[in-house]
Amino acid sequence: QVQLVESGGGLVQPGGSLRLSCAASGFSLENHAIGWFRQAPGKEREGVACISDGYPKTYYSEDRLTISRDNAKNTAYLQIDSLKPEDTAVYFCAAEPVCFGRIIIVGTRTGYWGQGTQVTVSS
Predict the structure, then answer these.
(1) Which are the contacts of 104, defined by CB distance < 8 A and separation ≥ 6?
(2) Using CA atoms, how far apart are residues 33 and 29, in angstroms rounded to an integer?
(3) What Cα–Cα distance (Å) separates residue 39 from each residue in 30, 78, 96?
(4) Which of 13, 46, 68, 69 has its CA at 20 to 30 Å from residue 59's CA atom?
């Protein structure tokens, strides 16, 4: 019953914007930090954004990203502006990442991975 489900990916032209959703089921998202990660073919998974529980402090690997949460809907979001071809990847959300500065990484407490949603940036 405990799971995260990503959605909102798709095919987008360079320069466009996209908002991804991360819906929680079986637990309260409000009580967990949430991170967004992405993995492109042949590359390692990298953290791109994070939002803390409690006071909503945010962390980003790039300035083009915006992370938010709606506790009433038990959903977190990731908006990517000025999309580039190198943004093409499968995007995942997970609970309890390790976040500081522009670094978002997987820690021993990180879990509840979603199934991922595909983002493809192409003309």
Answers:
(1) 35, 36, 37, 47, 48, 49, 50, 59, 61, 97, 98
(2) 8
(3) 26, 15, 18
(4) 13
